[in-house]
Structure formats: C-alpha cells, structure tokens
Design a protein that fits this description.
alpha+beta, three-stranded antiparallel beta sheet, two-stranded antiparallel sheet, flat
C-alpha cells in the first residue's frame, strides 16, 4: 500500500514556504537498510543455535533491529528531503526564472533540516502502521487455517467462490484544480490487503488521465488525492454551483456567426474535465495565494 508523506514547512522569517506531498511504498524504500548492519545482525542470529527463526531473519524485538530501523528511516528521510529540495530548485528555475531567478534552497540548512524532520516523523508512523497491519493479516490467516483444519477444509482443492472474497470499499471523490484545468470524478476502491493489485493509486490515476485526455503531469496530483482518501482523508463531494463554459451545439451556426457560450452545471455522476477561463483562473490564484500566506 502507498502512503502519502506531507511536507509543509516555512523559513523562520516566513519568507519562503514549501508545500508538497510524496507517495511512498514501505516495501520499496528508495534507500535500503545499511548492508553492514544487516550482516552484523545475521551473524548475531547465526550464533544462537536454539533460535527457531531462519538465520537470515532479524528479531524485531531486539535492540539491533530497532537501531537498524532507525538508521534506515534516517537515511531515507535525508534522501527524500534533498530530492524534494532539488526538485523545488529546478522547478522554480524553469517556471519563474524570468521573474525571481533560481532559489538557492540547499543553502538554507535550517529549511532542509525541517523538511527532513517532517518526513522522518511520518516514516516512523508509516512503518508502525505497516507492522500492525502485517501482524493483523498474519493473525487472520492463522485463525482461518486453524478453522479450515478443524473441519478438514482444503483451500487448494475447493473451488473458489467469489461471494466469499473479502472487500473494504472506500469512496473516492476527485476534486482537483491544477494549471487551469479542473477535474471531477467519483468511484470506489477496495483497500483490502488481498485486493491491493486492483486499487493501486498510480494505475488508477494513469487510467483517469488517459480516459479524460488530461496532461500526463496531472497523474501525480490525482494519485496523491486517491492515496490520501484511501487513508481516511475526507474530500467534500458537493458540486452545487460549480459550472464550466461550454459551446452551444447549433447546427445552423456558420463561421460568420458567433458561437453561443453557456454555463453547464457539473454533474457529480459524470467524470468531467474542463479548462478554466482566464478570469476564473486569476481569481482562483488570488484566493489560493491569500490562503497560503503565513
């Protein structure tokens, strides 16, 4: 399962604020555990003859495992923080260099440390939740196996019954406004561990972008919104009063005649994407800028 890592930090004088979200898979961290630490833990396990665990596993209750986990979290937080800051520098240079030039974010060590601390705290919470879910899943599997054994049930020989498949459906509401493009959609995803291959946020976002002919860059924003809602974020579904400009379909219209423009109310049951008018986009930017001020 993917997890959202949110970053919202400001400089001490509130002159600069960084807001971003990173999607992380706890089973595929960008920086693997230190090799030396793993070898040392394996050697310690090999010396225990009475240890019932395989030699290449680590006792999660031991202090050595705890230190290894802490070091892995620290290395990943540092890597993600530097990557985020580097991306911010490049993006700022390419989009706004004509106005403000390149922001030297790496020179602000305090800001970099704030970003790293924010990411590290969320990595700790993410891995803690993963342990709870993993232990719960293993416990459920053991209970089911004991029940099957008690009644002589063989899951390998029994035909699969689709009605017995567990599920946990979560409603998803897409309400995104990015680079002058608005997107609305709604659907449900199954977040049960057994059905994760059907609820991958990145694959779902890619499909939405493809179906609605959106810019590929919007895949990230849609995937983040899906992931956050899978973890409990509530997005208002009400679209009352939200409309967009549409050309009136008139077969009698000729090139010399102006095309009729009217406002169309957005229907929550229909996936919709439209480009905002310049005036609307300008108003939205002003509201967003005012809301983001410290």
């Amino acid at each position: 399962m993917l997890y959202p890592i949110r970053v919202d930090v400001s400089t001490s004088d509130n002159a600069l604020r960084i807001i971003d979200t990173i999607l992380i898979d706890p089973n595929c961290l960008p920086v693997p555990p230190p090799v030396g630490s793993i070898l040392n833990n394996n050697n310690n396990n090999n010396t225990n003859i009475n240890n019932s665990s395989p030699p290449d596993t680590i006792d999660q209750s031991s202090s050595s495992y705890f230190n290894l986990e802490q070091e892995t979290i620290r290395l990943n937080a540092a890597h993600l923080a530097r990557s985020l800051i580097a991306d911010m520098e490049v993006e700022g240079m390419t989009q706004k260099s004509a106005k403000i030039g390149r922001l030297r974010l790496f020179q602000n060590e305090s800001l970099l440390q704030q970003v790293q601390d924010t990411i590290e705290k969320q990595l700790v919470a993410m891995l803690k939740k993963e342990k709870i879910l993993r232990n719960h899943s293993l416990g459920s599997l053991r209970k089911r196996k004991l029940m099957d054994d008690s009644i002589g049930f063989d899951a390998n020989k029994s035909p699969k019954n689709s009605s017995t498949v567990e599920s946990h459906l979560v409603p998803i509401h897409i309400r995104i406004k990015e680079n002058g493009i608005c997107v609305t959609d709604q659907f449900t995803v199954d977040i049960h561990p057994r059905n994760q291959q059907l609820s991958n946020p990145i694959l779902l976002a890619s499909k939405i972008v493809q179906d609605m002919n959106l810019p590929r860059v919007m895949t990230q924003s849609i995937a983040i919104s899906i992931t956050e809602q899978m973890h409990g974020l509530l997005v208002p579904r009400d679209l009352e009063g939200l409309s967009f400009s549409a050309q009136g379909a008139n077969e009698s219209t000729t090139p010399s005649m102006p095309i009729a423009i009217h406002r169309t109310q957005v229907d929550e049951t229909v996936p919709t994407a439209w480009k905002m008018e310049e005036r609307e986009e300008g108003i939205a930017k002003k509201i967003h800028a005012s809301a983001g001020k410290p």
